[in-house]
């Protein structure tokens, strides 16, 4: 099972935005440079995060992106759904009622969803901040 690169970039972007002091905005150019991406590609990811309501965009020369919700509300699963959608990872190709294989796969997916929903991005942001502070010392 594999998530797209867009999900990887979205998660890293969200953590970076959470680390901004006072909820200040970060421009797409800076965000793209941090991850060595084209601003055009990252803009598509940012659009999905904006539509999902996790970040907001401020236009203009001093504009950019910032987290639009309480940081303690945003889980890994929230960001994954914003990028990947909420469709099932497994789709049984043999359509019959009570498919035992499909039942096992759906249960495993539900377990994974619960785990990702319980992990908040702010926890990772705080760990990253701690590592940065240790490196500076």
Automatic annotation (TrEMBL):
Which Gene Ontology terms cover its molecular function? DNA-binding transcription factor activity
| GO cellular component assignments | cytosol
**What name does the UniProt record give this protein?**
Transcriptional regulator
Q: Which Pfam families match?
A: Rrf2
Give the superkingdom in one word: Bacteria
Gene3D superfamilies hit by this protein: Winged helix-like DNA-binding domain superfamily/Winged helix DNA-binding domain
Q: Which PANTHER family match?
A: RRF2 FAMILY PROTEIN, WINGED HELIX-TURN-HELIX TRANSCRIPTIONAL REGULATOR, RRF2 FAMILY
């Amino acid at each position: 099972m594999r998530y797209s690169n867009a999900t990887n970039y979205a998660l890293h972007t969200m953590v970076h935005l959470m680390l901004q002091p006072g909820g200040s905005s970060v421009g797409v150019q800076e965000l793209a440079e941090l991850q060595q991406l084209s601003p055009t590609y990252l803009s598509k990811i940012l659009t999905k995060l904006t539509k999902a309501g996790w970040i907001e965009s401020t236009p203009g020369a001093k504009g950019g992106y910032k987290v639009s919700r309480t940081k303690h509300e945003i889980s890994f699963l929230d960001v994954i759904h914003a990028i990947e959608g909420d469709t099932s990872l497994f789709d049984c190709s043999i359509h019959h009622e009570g498919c035992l294989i499909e039942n096992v796969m759906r249960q495993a997916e539900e377990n994974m969803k619960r785990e990702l929903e319980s992990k908040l991005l702010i926890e990772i942001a705080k760990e990253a901040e701690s590592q940065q502070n240790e490196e500076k010392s």
